[in-house]
Design a protein that fits this description.
With 117 residues, chain A is mainly β. Chain A contains no helices and 11 strands. In chain B, strands 2, 4, 5, 6, 8, 9 and 10 form a 7-stranded mixed beta sheet that branches. Chain B has a 3-stranded antiparallel beta sheet with strand order 1-3-7, with no helix packed on it. Chain B has no helices and 10 strands. The chains are: A mainly beta (117), B mainly beta (107).
Chain lengths: 117, 107
C-alpha cells in the first residue's frame, strides 16, 4: 500500500490550493479516503472523508464551506480543494485509507501547506 | 464528544510498563475507538482499532482495553522504538475526533 500526497506549498491568505493523493497497492475504488492535518508541533485534526464511490462526503466544521473533497477512481486519486485559506490552515496534510469506517488503516507521508503573506 | 488523553507526558525507562488513558466526554461504542503511534518526523501508524484489536504487524506488547468513556493503551515492556506520541481517536458516522496525544519519553 502506498499513498503519495502532492500539491502543498506556500500560499497567501485568501488563496486557494488543490492537494492530490495517489493510491497504489490496493483496490483504490473499494475504500473510503480521508484527509487529516497536523499544524506544526500540534496534534492531529480530521479534515474530510469521501466514500469509496464518491457518493458521500463529510467535512470538519473548521473547514466547511472552504474545503471540498473529491476523487477520481480512474486515476486512483483523491483530492482536497482548499479555498479562502487562513494562517490557521498551515499544517502538514495527510491522506489516509479508511478501515471499514472504524479507523485509518494507512497514512501517506504528508504534504506541507503554509499560508503566509 | 471530546477525547482527553492523560498524562500529557509519560517518562519511563525501557522495559517498564506504560499505561495511557483516553477519556471521552460521552459514552460511545468501543468499536469506534482506535489508537495511533507517531514517531518524530514520521507519519502516524494505526496500532489498535475497535478498542482492543491490534492492527497488522503490531507487536503483542501493545494492548488496548476499555469501554463507555474510559479507554486505555498499554505497552507491556517499553522498547526503544516505542518512545513516541500516541493518539486515541473516535470514529463517528459523520466525523472523526482525536485526543490531544500522550508523549512517551525516555526517563
Amino acid at each position: 500500500v502506498q499513498l503519495v500526497e502532492s500539491g502543498g506549498g506556500v500560499v497567501q491568505p485568501g488563496g486557494s490550493l488543490r492537494l492530490s493523493c495517489a493510491g497504489s497497492g490496493f483496490t483504490f475504488s473499494s475504500f473510503g479516503m480521508h484527509w487529516v492535518r497536523q499544524a506544526p508541533g500540534k496534534g492531529l485534526e480530521w479534515v474530510s472523508f469521501i466514500q469509496f464511490d464518491g457518493s458521500t462526503e463529510y467535512v470538519a466544521d473548521s473547514v466547511k464551506g472552504r474545503f471540498t473533497i473529491s476523487r477520481d477512481n480512474s486515476k486512483n486519486t483523491v483530492y482536497l480543494e482548499m479555498s479562502s485559506l487562513r494562517a490557521e490552515d498551515t499544517a502538514v496534510y495527510y491522506c489516509a485509507k479508511d478501515l471499514v469506517r472504524v479507523a485509518f488503516e494507512f497514512w501517506g507521508q504528508g504534504t506541507l501547506v503554509s499560508v503566509s503573506s | 464528544i471530546v477525547l482527553t488523553q492523560s498524562p500529557g507526558t509519560l517518562s519511563l525507562s525501557p522495559g517498564e510498563r506504560a499505561t495511557l488513558s483516553c477519556r471521552a466526554s460521552q459514552s460511545f461504542s468501543s468499536s469506534f475507538l482506535a489508537w495511533y503511534q507517531q514517531k518524530p518526523g514520521q507519519t502516524p501508524r494505526l496500532l489498535i482499532y475497535g478498542a482492543s484489536n491490534r492492527a497488522t504487524g503490531v507487536p503483542d506488547r501493545f494492548s488496548g482495553s476499555g469501554s463507555g468513556t474510559d479507554f486505555s493503551l498499554t505497552i507491556s515492556r517499553l522498547e526503544s522504538e516505542d518512545f513516541a506520541v500516541y493518539y486515541c481517536q473516535r470514529y463517528e458516522s459523520t466525523s472523526v475526533t482525536f485526543g490531544g496525544g500522550t508523549r512517551v519519553e525516555i526517563k
